């Protein structure tokens, strides 16, 4: 599901588990890094995530959801 979402966002390429070798992963990464549009989109998403508080904010949200679930 995460891979599909990243593909939808234009920053990833899906590699099925059965096909995931060092060579296929390297080729996929090289393909992504050679595409200026994907690099630009990755930078945009990175900036947006940082503006929203980045990893610390994401961890706080997960902890809030877990705490709420434990209360019920």
What does this 3D model show about the protein?
This protein is 74% helix and 0% strand. With 72 residues, the chain is mainly α. It has one domain (1-71).
Mean pLDDT across every amino acid position: 94
Order of helices and strands: HHHH
* Biggest sheet layout: none
- The count of strands amounts to 0
- Principal-axis shape equals flat
Number of domains: 1
Taking the alpha carbons of the first and last residues, their distance comes to 27 Å
The helix-and-strand class reads mainly alpha
Low-confidence stretches: none
Q: What value does the Rg take, in angstroms? A: 16 Å
Count of alpha and pi helical runs: 4
Fraction of residues in helices? over 70%
Fraction in beta strands: under 5%
Concise synopsis of the structure shown:
With 72 residues, the protein is mostly helical. The chain has helices spanning 2-8, 22-33, 36-51, 54-71. It has one domain (1-71).
Produce the secondary structure layout.
Layout: H1 2-8, H2 22-33, H3 36-51, H4 54-71
Features:
mainly alpha; 4 helices; 72 residues; flat; 74% helix; 0% strand
